[in-house]
Amino acid sequence: MSPGNPLDRLAAAHRIESDYIDIWGQRQTIGENSKRALLAAMGVAADSDTEIDASLEAARQEAFSRLAPVGLVITDGEPLKVPVTTNAVASGRIAWRFVTESGEQMEGDAVLSALDVSEATASRIRRPLPLPLRPAPGYHRLTLTFDDRETAETEIIVTPKRAFWPSCLDRHGGVAGLTAPLYGLRSGRNAGIGDFTDLAVLATKTAPMGADFIGINPVHALFPAEPGRISPYSPSSRLFLNTLLIALDQVPELMPSEAARQLLNDSDTLQRLRASDLVDYPAVADFK
User: Fold this and answer.
1) What is the mean pLDDT of residues 244-272?
2) Quick check: pTM over 0.85?
3) With 0-12 CB in 10 A as exposed, 13-18 as middle and 19+ as buried, what is 128?
């Protein structure tokens, strides 16, 4: 669907989708107020027709200022065509080097005058450069060099045609399960915050009831030195797990330590942590 009115064109220029399919399979259209709010959040003026026209012209000038766009998104299987923008009187050759996410490199070139013109301004011309490539889904890098003097890099993002679909969802009746924020699981053995043993116990008990999955919150590493920063959606690293979720009674290195065993038997502290209506993150972190 090509954008019609100026607000639609401005939203499209800033990669704001015009509609989407909701979880019930119904198409939902993005309203004008939402588009204006999103544009405002991006620092793009769109409160009046005059502002929209000015912002459209600014976006157009920006788009025509580079040899190639900063990024380009295509769907797996689509032909790869990169818009190349040069001065209207320019001529020469475009050399390209494509580096895949895995490091494989391919090169080629094309004569600028042999490419069809798709758009133009008074001083700039845009031509789509077709590349004889079918890159796999992933993040790739394309470097263009025009006449050995003007260079641009473009990130080529190739998306799958559809999201991953587990084969179990194709079976009759689908699947059933439950969601359980891991930190909120209560047990008589944890330290006031749900841990990985609690998760294992929950899975063991719900699987015989027909549960196929348990949905939990992200369990990436948070901020060990700042236990008050508790959002699972703002981790300090996605490479490591949240150490607060370790089950203390399952750590073999603690068992030879008499001091550690005494702490694990500190029933008063543990009962206080377990009895809290909310997870007392600083106290739990201090204890664990």
Assistant:
1) 89
2) no
3) middle
